[in-house]
Design goal:
Largest sheet: 6 strands, mixed
Number of strands: 6
Number of domains: 1
Strand content: 15-25%
Number of helices: 3
Shape: globular
Oligomer: single chain
Radius of gyration: 13 Å
Structural class: alpha/beta
Helix content: 25-40%
Length: 124
């Protein structure tokens, strides 16, 4: 699977994805550092990687409808340190084997993963 990791995540997140046989590139690796959310989203729509981010703006399905993307994963740890983020991404990797990501928004916190698809009631 293809992923783009946002610039608010350590490069180790993309490296962990690559170690698990995924094609992962970070926003800085793609010379996109400093781009707006809209620009990052546009690239994700056109190039089709799933996005991994800490940016809660991407959880707004009115602006970023899950069905328009190959997946959006928003990490919401209580503490944003490298070890916590890597632990959450390890949980994401296990879940990828069981749950489809395409067209869905995953919000991953320390205790649960909430999954929303664009075709759920109340979605635009």
């Amino acid at each position: 699977m293809r992923f783009k990791t946002d610039e608010n995540l350590p490069i180790e997140v993309a490296e962990l994805l690559r170690q698990n046989q995924h094609d992962a590139r970070s926003v800085p690796e793609r010379q996109m550092a400093g781009q707006t959310d809209v620009q990052v989203a546009r690239v994700c729509r056109s190039e089709s990687p799933a996005l991994v981010t800490l940016d809660l703006d991407f959880s707004d399905i009115r602006h970023y409808p899950p069905q328009d993307y190959n997946g959006i994963i928003v990490l919401r740890p209580a503490v944003q340190n490298r070890s916590t983020l890597m632990r959450l991404m390890s949980q994401v990797l296990m879940l990828l084997a069981q749950e489809p990501l395409d067209g869905r928004l995953w919000i991953v916190d320390d205790h649960r993963v909430r999954i929303r698809s664009g075709d759920q009631p109340g979605a635009p």
